[in-house]
């Protein structure tokens, strides 16, 4: 990927991020689990005109660390993102969170409600884990502790990608596996435990008062379009786009379609700023 990683000491950690593009308008891409900023390659490489794109590595992933302990609360990851933006002098960015990155985005908006000027929520959900979901995460954490990350990655891949992507676009699976394989076992465990204890973000949805775009793969099995529709109904004025021929990773599986929705939304945010 063209954009090199930069690093700074922030919030008691070393945080790393990628940057591309220039401009006063800023788009922040917050990755999901168990990825790092590399997963946004198709978006970073296509940084829209006039937008500065910043893709942080969440703590424990990519070049960011060390872990704060044996769990990674979504709130701590949110504090890191807020600290990074303060460090970079960024005010009023558009935040785009994918899956776990969406959980972090909800935590950012809880902690700093006036920070974002627009939200993109891709393949994510507001609700906390069910008891069954929590137990599943604990089981996976134990398994990774005993055997490493390879088996978890193998089990996740068919749920992350649409079957058509796997069959027709093998390079997508290859790239995604490479990013996942870079995650260490302790980071994967800490993120699983952090996600398992995240709070329900549903109550805050009604008070989101910035333009919001939901994006979801039509065949996402992890956070299906039904979850995005719930978000669209609860967030005032939110719009939803369903990306065909994609599972949980539309930004990587169908980057042209994903980027089109993203750029249209960014133009709308700019426009709303001018007319307000
Ligand atoms: C992700 O893609 O970030 C994860 O699938 C989210 C989750 O496990 O809830």
Describe the structure using short key phrases.
276 residues; alpha/beta; Rossmann fold; eight-stranded mixed β-sheet; 11 helices; 8 strands; 45% helix; 17% strand; globular; binds D-malate
Give a structural overview:
It is a single chain. With 276 residues, the chain is an alpha/beta fold. It has one domain: Alpha/Beta hydrolase fold, catalytic domain (Rossmann fold), CATH 3.40.50. 45% of the residues lie in helices and 17% in strands. The protein contains 11 helices and 8 strands. The protein has helices at 41-44, 74-87, 100-111, 131-147, 150-160, 163-168, 170-181, 185-196, 225-234, 250-253, 255-275; strands spanning 5-10, 13-20, 25-30, 51-57, 94-98, 118-122, 212-217, 239-243. Strands 1-2-4-3-5-6-7-8 form an 8-stranded mixed β-sheet, sandwiched between helices. β7 (212-217), α9 and β8 form a beta-alpha-beta unit. The longest helix is centred in the C-terminal third of the chain and has 21 residues, at 255-275. It is globular and about 55 Å long. The structure holds D-malate. D-malate binds next to loops.
SSE layout:
Layout: E1 5-10, E2 13-20, E3 25-30, H1 41-44, E4 51-57, H2 74-87, E5 94-98, H3 100-111, E6 118-122, H4 131-147, H5 150-160, H6 163-168, H7 170-181, H8 185-196, E7 212-217, H9 225-234, E8 239-243, H10 250-253, H11 255-275
D-malate binds at residues 32-33, 99-100, 195, 222, 248.
Q: Could you tell me which ligands this complex binds, including any ions or cofactors?
A: D-malate
Could you tell me the CATH topology label.
Answer: Rossmann fold
Determine the fraction of residues in helical runs and give it as a percent range.
40-55%
SSE order, one letter for each helix or strand: EEEHEHEHEHHHHHEHEHH
Class by alpha and beta content: alpha/beta
Our count of helices gives: 11
Task: Count the beta strands.
Answer: 8
Spatial arrangement of strands, main beta sheet? 1-2-4-3-5-6-7-8
Largest pleated sheet: 8 strands, mixed
Examine the secondary-structure arrangement and name the CATH architecture.
3-Layer(aba) Sandwich
Number of domains: 1
CATH superfamily: Alpha/Beta hydrolase fold, catalytic domain
CATH level 1 name: Alpha Beta
Distance between the termini: 37 Å
């Amino acid at each position: 990927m063209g954009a090199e990683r930069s690093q700074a000491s922030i919030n008691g950690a070393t945080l790393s991020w990628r940057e591309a593009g220039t401009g006063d308008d800023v788009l922040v891409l917050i990755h999901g689990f168990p990825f790092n900023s590399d997963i946004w390659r198709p978006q970073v490489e296509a940084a829209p005109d006039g937008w500065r794109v910043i893709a942080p590595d969440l703590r424990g992933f990519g070049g960011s660390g060390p872990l704060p302990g044996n769990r990674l609360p979504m709130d701590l990851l949110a504090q890191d993102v807020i600290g990074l933006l303060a460090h970079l002098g960024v005010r009023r960015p558009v935040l785009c969170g994918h899956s776990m990155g969406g959980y972090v985005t909800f935590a950012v908006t809880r902690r700093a409600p006036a920070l974002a000027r627009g939200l993109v929520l891709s393949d994510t959900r507001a609700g906390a884990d069910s008891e069954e979901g929590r137990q599943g995460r604990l089981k996976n954490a134990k398994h990774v502790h005993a055997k490493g990350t390879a088996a978890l990655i193998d089990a996740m891949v068919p749920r992350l990608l649409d079957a058509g992507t796997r069959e027709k676009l093998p390079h997508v699976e290859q790239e995604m596996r490479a990013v996942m394989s870079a995650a260490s076992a302790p980071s994967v465990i800490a993120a699983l435990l952090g996600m398992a204890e995240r709070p329900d973000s549903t109550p805050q949805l009604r008070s989101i008062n910035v333009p919001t775009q939901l994006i979801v793969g039509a065949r996402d099995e992890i956070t299906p379009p039904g979850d995005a529709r719930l978000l669209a109904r609860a967030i005032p004025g939110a719009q939803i786009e369903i990306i065909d021929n994609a599972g949980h990773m539309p930004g990587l599986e169908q980057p042209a379609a994903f980027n089109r929705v993203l750029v249209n939304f960014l133009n709308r945010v700019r426009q709303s700023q001018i007319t307000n």
